[in-house]
Design a protein that fits this description.
6 strands, 5 helices, alpha/beta, TIM Barrel, globular, 6-stranded parallel beta sheet, 135 residues
Length: 135
């Protein structure tokens, strides 16, 4: 089964996604918006995910912080305890970051990310239900 990714913009959205994942007994990946590491910071994102998981501990979840094309943000995120990050910058930089991530058992994603973005969705729970129910 493909990884089901939901882009969250708040703790409330993260909790909604996890509640629906628990209800459907499906794993979910909470992702930040594109380039969010530059304006929310790795610690904020990490803590939002952590708090959501505390509120819905039965949900099976992982997370991805999007660092855009900034290698420094990727390194900072890894140092701050984020285990999976997305990088959209130059291939040469990506190769160096991948080597670093592998050495530390961390994960760097560089390809496109198919995801449900909850930003402008009115019924967030139903959108999550529909997205997580896809095969």
């Amino acid at each position: 089964m493909d990884e089901r990714v939901i882009i969250i913009h708040s703790l409330e959205q993260a909790v909604t996604a996890l509640k629906v994942a628990r209800e459907l007994d499906r794993p979910v990946t909470l992702a930040s918006p594109p380039g969010a590491a530059a304006y929310t910071g790795a610690l904020w994102f990490r803590e939002v995910v952590k708090q959501a998981q505390l509120e819905v501990p039965q949900a099976e979840a992982s997370s991805i912080l999007d660092c855009g094309d900034k290698p420094g943000l990727v390194m900072a995120a890894f140092r701050q305890g984020v285990l999976r990050v997305r990088f959209t910058g130059a291939r040469e930089a990506a190769e160096k970051l991948e080597a670093m991530a592998e050495a530390e058992s961390l994960h760097l994603l560089t390809g496109p990310l198919e995801a449900l973005d909850l930003l402008d969705v009115k019924d967030k729970a139903q959108a999550c239900r529909d997205w997580l129910s896809k095969v």
